[in-house]
Amino acid sequence: MTATANISATKGTNAPSHTLFVCKTCATTWQDGKRVGESGGQKLLKQLQNLSQDWHLKNYFPIQEVECMSACSHSCVVAFAGSGKLTYLFGDLPIDNSASAILECASQYYAKPDGLLPWSERPEPLKKGILARIPSLPQ
Ligand code: FES
């Protein structure tokens, strides 16, 4: 009885269960072992952060910057993760003109109970850049 009450209480909160990970190191220019200027990943991250201010899911699908997702030869790289859902890793995303497509695809992901994103439904920049589709953990 107590466990049921706790589960209901948890479901009643607005705690985000989704995350959009964005690699901020992708497309970095290096010179003598040091970063030069703003990386492509940082530019994409800024665009996503700005665009998400008006996104209806901004409080439910937070954007989290990460240093690297080990897909460095496929910059720029983002990932969608959600409780009980497939996790997607997307690469080869253009620095410019992909932010709105990423948020559109994230909205599709949010709406699906299992997170499945069929090729034909995904926005153009995210149709061919899937690097991984990882099964969800058992619930
Ligand atoms: S630098 Fe972006 S995935 Fe490694």
Key descriptive features of the protein:
two-stranded antiparallel ribbon; Metal-binding protein; 25% helix; 139 residues; single chain; 22% strand; Glutaredoxin; 3 helices; DUF1636; binds FE2/S2 (inorganic) cluster; disordered N terminus; five-stranded mixed sheet
Concise structural overview:
With 139 residues, this protein is α+β, with helices and mostly antiparallel strands. Helices cover 25% and strands 22% of the residues.
List the helices and strands and how they pair.
Elements lengths: L1 H10 L6 E6 L5 E3 L2 E3 L3 H12 L11 E4 L11 E5 L4 E4 L8 H13 L18 E5 L5
Parallel strand pairs: 1-4
Antiparallel strand pairs: 1-5, 2-3, 5-6, 6-7
Helix pairs in contact: 2-3
The structure holds FE2/S2 (inorganic) cluster (FES).
Describe the structure.
The protein has 139 residues and is α+β, with helices and mostly antiparallel strands. The protein has a single domain, classed as Glutaredoxin (3-Layer(aba) Sandwich). The chain has three helices and seven strands. It has helices at residues 2-11, 40-51, 99-111, and strands at residues 18-23, 29-31, 34-36, 63-66, 78-82, 87-90, 130-134. Strand 5 (78-82) and strand 6 form a beta hairpin. The radius of gyration is 16 Å and the shape is globular. The two termini are 20 Å apart. The structure holds FE2/S2 (inorganic) cluster (FES).
